[in-house]
What we know:
The protein is built from ten helices and eleven strands. The protein is of the alpha/beta class. A seven-stranded mixed beta sheet has the order 2-3-4-1-5-6-11. Strand 2 and strand 3 form a beta hairpin.
Amino acid sequence: MQRVGNYWHMLPEASQARKAVWDAINSHTGLRRIDEAFPASIRLGQREEDMKIILANGSTWQLVGSDRFDSLVGAPPIGLVFSEYSLTNPAAWDHLRPILAENGGWAIFMLTPRGRNHAWNLYDVAKSQPTWFAEQLTVDDTKAIAADVVAAERASGMSEDLVAQEYYCSFDAALPGAYYGKLLQNADTDRRIGRVPWAPDAVVHTAWDLGIGDSTAIWFAQTVGQETRLIDYYESFGVGLDHYAKILREKPYVYGEHILPHDAQVAASTTRFAGSRPSSSAQSVPKAAPLPAPQPLPSAPRAPRSTRPSRGRRRSRASAPSVQERFALSNSRAC
């Protein structure tokens, strides 16, 4: 923080930032963590209500929540730290990154994996770009938790998926409570995940998960012969059904059925999707019949394994020339 400016440490929610950082006490020393990070000798003062520390060189460091990123747009930070980025609304980074580009600032992302979501996408980019730094650390690397403690966690009933996620930073471990996590892992192991073409002469069906307070997800599928092919996917957050209708209209597909959850009748009945066959409009299916069961795709080429993060340390760099970005992946219990 030698460069004078505003620095933000962001957690998914402001209340979380207060509990996890501002009020947190180091159990090993009995001291507040912010007092250890910013000793009195380098401070001019602090504002308790704003979780802000004013440093002797004129810089400020502040804890903020990325859940209210709209209220932060327009402020001029030159450094951002995203903590628990896997749980953060990705729109926060998209809205704040132009500020760093203008200021020549930097960003750091710290996380524990939660599947292959937006955090995995960013990590995958970081590994392949020369202007990024990316690092993946497991408990074997940090030694923050002994191997016998991990073994005891397994013995006491902690699932192997959760062990892989929390201690070994696995993006491929099934999320606890995920309905299809194991099935997807099995499909990957059986080489049933690959690339399939769009068949223009076959209709495209969509299956929706309407998010209230989280993302809305849409899968696009075709039945070609004995195969059910998932050919496309779209996800967004914080927008209305008109946005998704526009996305569907912009795609070149001829639609068959639009399958929505049972609780989407009112919303779905007021929205029609251009591009569907004349006899088909946006439908709410009281008990959504699933698409035909996926069949193995023996001829589909294997998805490149290089997209999977291997364990250990990774180094690469990527950003616009005016932005210095740093990406650190670490075990949450090692921080």
